Amino acid sequence: MATDTPKTIVSIVGLDKTYNGGHHALKSVDLEIYRGEIFALLGPNGAGKTTLIGIVCGLVRATGGTVIADGHDIAHDYRAARAKIGLVPQELSTDMFETVWHSVNYSRGLFGKPRDHAHVEQVLRDLSLWEKRNSKIGALSGGMKRRVLIAKALSHEPTILFLDEPTAGVHVELRRDMWEMVRALRDRGVTIILTTHYIEEAEEMADRIGVIDGGKIILIEEKHALMQKLGRTRVTIGLNERLDVIPPALADERLALADDGRSLVLTLMGEDDGATGAADLIKRLSAEGVEFRSIDTARSSLEDIFVDLVEKRP
Ligand SMILES: Nc1ncnc2c1ncn2[C@@H]1O[C@H](COP(=O)(O)OP(=O)(O)O)[C@@H](O)[C@H]1O
Ligand SMILES: [Mg+2]
Q: What is this structure's pTM?
């Protein structure tokens, strides 16, 4: 019998957390994660990312709200919910004296799953750890240790994988490998939720992005839509001769004079690709007899967008 699998795999409603001592770390967070996506939760240090993950994974007790993970309420049906979830914690701590093979099989056992060497082998191969299966974890590089943590998190065949700051402290060159691996896991059907304070990481990896700041979700958006809606295109025209003011015939609130009058900058918001705006400006420049030597078009990055967002907040 074919039943429709719901699109939402994790549903978080009104989640609240006040730590003992009074810090209000999460303020009525609502969040839906879709099956099969990579969702990036982006926010500065202290925003509440690890707290949110801790609650979903049963390490931190919420002070309000509900979480349903793949059909199971984490409060009322904890074991079933937790069995659906793999967690790769922010802190690298694992048994350094164990071998990779033993450690990953052991993690599987903790979830009451029967031995399945074929599955563990597959996980280790997917993470390029198979050759290292007999190495002691403590002897591995930082990047490989983190992959062992991912393997442990996948040992019991979860449908949801949380990665808390997966590339914090990982060398820049190794970040790309990590991103490739995470994408491969998604392609195998695992829903991925990662937290990061690296904007580039969210931009590179995510299907959707949530921004959290001060315990509140301030934005949730499909990545491309976010870039389109909030992105800007900047057309910079290098002038042959300095201008003191923008000629009245060119007056346009989107146009500014920069570089001591040596270039004109046209800023276009939203989906405009810049080509039309630039062509129109060039026509008007020619009509005014303003000569120019260069035209550059730059699209704002997620980084620019994020800085705008956080700066605009009270
Ligand atoms: N066990 C705790 N007790 C008290 N306050 C905490 C505890 N854990 C985290 N916090 C506070 O809650 C806020 C959110 O922390 P955290 O969830 O770790 O943020 P992030 O992962 O986004 O950096 C921070 O201000 C942090 O100091
Ligand atoms: Mg954290």
A: 0.81
